[in-house]
């Protein structure tokens, strides 16, 4: 019995070492930019680069727009399927996992074919159009994760009862979605949003083929020109991913309507005149 109980612990430790040892080695290497001493010179060099500031800003904005569009697309769809079209749910689930099967290269060339020169909507001919295609690509890539998160969140609540209660109070279907459904699946939306952000931030294929100044192609370019800065960027990317996973766990464990931070009680002092 002791051997059986010890076996999962050994597997867990080995799996942890498998992931942590390369990360620790990468972090140590990123500190060796100055010969003979450990320093954060590589990180300082990265943050002082104007290109880094531009690409990280572009990626953050594009990821946030993709999160908003993904939530606006997935939440009403999952709500309507669960409420009115339960027989269509297997088909919707199949469609939602297609981005995991179809390579990103195929997706990009499909965009270029449909929205290229001679198209009724030539988005590839302008910078704004390319940015729109990039955001749409992010939404498509994150669709399996966003849909699964939202669908599982809706499975935990009684959609039909909440809808009937809202309609009995005179709420329209749109107001029901905005004021009732969204708050009750807030944790699921936040979980999907963090996963979308992590995927979009490091995406390379779509961003590179659309020639957008984002974080993924920047990391590859830095890796071709420098030695220590790419290691620093890799460590920062891991750190950002872990932070978002922790935030996802924090928001996901909170009940609907619960405050993020507890309200502080401030005592009132009354000045007594002489």
Give the full name of the CATH homologous superfamily of the domain at 57-214. MetI-like
Q: What is the second-level CATH architecture of the domain at 57-214?
A: Orthogonal Bundle
User: Tally of extended strands?
Assistant: 0
List the total number of helices. Answer: 13
**Quaternary:** single chain
Mean pLDDT: 82
Which structural class best describes the helix and strand composition? mainly alpha
CATH topology description of the domain at 57-214: MetI-like fold
SSE series: HHHHHHHHHHHHH
Shape: globular
Strand percentage: under 5%
Helix content: over 70%
Report how far the terminal alpha carbons are from each other.
78 Å
Low-confidence stretches: 263-274
Subcellular location: Cell inner membrane; Cell membrane
GO biological process, one term: transmembrane transport
Main location: membrane
Membrane topology: Multi-pass membrane protein
Question: What descriptors fit this protein?
Answer:
mainly alpha; MetI-like fold; 74% helix; 0% strand; globular; disordered C terminus
Per-chain topology:
Layout (H helix, E strand, L loop, with lengths): L1 H29 L10 H7 L2 H34 L5 H8 L1 H4 L2 H11 L12 H29 L3 H10 L4 H12 L1 H17 L2 H5 L5 H11 L2 H25 L22
Helix pairs in contact: 1-13, 2-13, 3-7, 3-10, 7-10, 8-9, 10-13, 12-13
3D architecture notes:
With 274 residues, the chain is mainly alpha-helical. It has a domain at 57-214: MetI-like fold. It is built from 13 helices and no strands. The chain has helices at residues 2-30, 41-47, 50-83, 89-96, 98-101, 104-114, 127-155, 159-168, 173-184, 186-202, 205-209, 215-225, 228-252. Helix 7 runs antiparallel to helix 10 and helix 8 packs across helix 9. The longest helix is centred in the first third of the chain and has 34 residues, at 50-83. The protein is globular and about 75 Å long. The protein starts with a helix and ends in a 22-residue tail after the last helix. 27% of the residues are buried. It holds the Pfam family BPD_transp_1. Residues 52-248 form the ABC transmembrane type-1 domain. This is ABC transporter permease subunit.
């Amino acid at each position: 019995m002791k051997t059986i109980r010890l076996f999962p612990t050994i597997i867990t430790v080995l799996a942890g070492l498998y992931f942590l040892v390369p990360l620790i080695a990468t972090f140590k290497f990123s500190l060796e930019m100055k010969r003979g001493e450990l320093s954060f010179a590589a990180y300082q060099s990265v943050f002082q680069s104007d290109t880094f500031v531009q690409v990280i800003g572009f990626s953050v904005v594009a990821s946030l727009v993709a999160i908003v569009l993904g939530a606006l697309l997935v939440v009403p769809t999952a709500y309507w399927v669960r409420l009115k079209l339960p027989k269509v749910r297997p088909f919707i689930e199949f469609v939602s996992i297609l981005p995991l099967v179809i390579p990103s290269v195929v997706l990009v060339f499909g965009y270029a074919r449909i929205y290229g020169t001679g198209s009724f909507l030539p988005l590839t001919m302008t910078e704004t159009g390319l940015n729109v295609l990039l955001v749409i690509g992010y939404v498509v890539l994150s669709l399996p994760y966003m849909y699964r998160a939202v669908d599982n969140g809706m499975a935990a609540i009684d959609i039909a009862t909440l809808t009937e209660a809202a309609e009995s109070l005179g709420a329209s279907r749109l107001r029901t979605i905005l004021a009732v459904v969204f708050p009750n699946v807030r944790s699921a939306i936040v979980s999907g949003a963090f996963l979308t952000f992590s995927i979009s931030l490091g995406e390379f294929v779509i961003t590179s083929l659309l020639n957008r100044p984002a974080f993924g192609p920047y990391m590859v370019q830095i890796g071709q020109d420098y030695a220590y800065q790419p290691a620093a960027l890799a460590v920062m990317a891991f750190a950002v991913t872990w932070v978002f996973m922790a935030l996802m766990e924090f928001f996901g464990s909170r009940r609907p309507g619960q405050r993020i931070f507890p309200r502080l009680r401030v005592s009132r002092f009354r000045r007594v005149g002489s």
